[in-house]
Specification:
alpha+beta
Length: 316
């Protein structure tokens, strides 16, 4: 800036002209003498812009090639890592409803307070909504079928009828109003996990609860025993006494026909409704529900909770 150009030759030895501060700012942005914008001519700005344009086009092309290669190697339905190779592992956990996040695992309500009761009833209804109305599913449940005792063909899934829950229904407030609350139990989904079922009455685990053993021994066919069994009981002797008798709807098992889970659209997990028939009032009851199969690991530790779910209930 300010260089002389006698006979077309630039002379940088001459001192630049002295200008006021605002004028210097103006000349730094646009120099009318040298016709430069921010110190560069239009030609130089054009060259720089062209370089950056080519560079970013190359980056976009390279990124697109990488993404296409990655997506072509992935399957939308099949995870890259499964079972023991995945973070989840090959030992399914369990879940339950209702569960109010701010209360954690505690179910606490006054049987005369409908506002408190409705919080739990609404939570269960929200969870069961896709079972009752298949239009809420991604594919509207068009590939669901009544499986009876046979597994469905590929790309079809078994429906699950929550009318099997008997008194554990929304019309009956899931038993909460009658002080006989129902807890919905589910097994967490693990892709391609196949259960090794306990179906031999002569070879039942020694620590299996007597009532579950009695149910298995009462079955007459192998199909009736092809289930992942479910049992619930109090965690401590005081909890066992306060819990009272339980009723499982439709029965204490998750049918084999729902496994393995393969991420087919419209899939619904099988459920068991556990009804507390006569729980002790005004006392917190700690309850542990667990799943039974040869390849489901269980630990007594509440920290790990392998193959089980824990909750507490208190009815006033």
């Amino acid at each position: 800036m300010g260089a002389d150009k006698p006979n077309g030759i630039v002379n940088y030895c001459r001192r630049p002209p002295q200008r006021p501060f605002l004028k210097r700012i103006q000349y730094a942005i646009w120099d009318p003498e040298e016709r430069t914008f921010l110190g560069r001519t239009g030609k130089r700005w054009g060259v720089i812009g062209l370089i950056y344009l080519v560079m970013y086009i190359c980056i976009i092309i390279f990124f697109s090639i990488c993404m296409c290669g990655l997506l072509s190697a992935m399957d939308e339905r099949i995870p890259y890592f499964t079972l023991s190779e995945s973070i989840i592992g090959d030992n399914p956990g369990m879940g339950h409803r209702p569960i109010i996040l701010e209360n954690g695992a505690l179910i606490w309500y006054d049987s005369k307070n409908m506002t408190q009761i409705n919080r739990y009833v609404d939570n269960i209804n929200e969870f069961l909504a896709p079972y009752e109305n298949t239009s809420l599913l991604v594919n509207k449940g068009v590939n669901q079928r009544n499986c009876s005792d046979s597994k469905p063909p590929r790309n079809e899934v078994c429906s699950f009828d929550i009318k099997q829950f008997g008194p554990c229904s929304k019309e009956n407030h899931f038993g909460y109003r009658n002080k006989t609350p129902c807890i919905i139990i589910k097994l967490n989904r693990i892709f391609d996990w196949n259960p090794k079922l306990i179906d031999d009455p002569e070879n039942l685990p020694p620590d299996m609860p007597p009532d579950l053993k009695n149910y298995i021994n009462s079955t007459t066919t192998l199909k009736e025993r092809r289930n992942i069994w479910v049992s619930c009981m109090g965690e401590r002797p005081a909890d066992v006494d306060a819990l009272g008798p339980l009723k499982y709807w439709p029965y204490p098992g998750l049918p084999e026909i729902y496994f393995p889970y393969d991420n087919t659209p419209g899939y619904l997990s099988p459920l068991v409704a556990v009804q507390l028939l006569n729980p002790k009032l005004h006392q917190i009851i700690n309850i542990r529900c667990r799943a039974w199969a040869h390849n489901i690991k269980f630990t007594e530790s509440l920290k790990e909770r392998l193959g089980s779910t824990h909750f507490e209930i208190m009815i006033d």
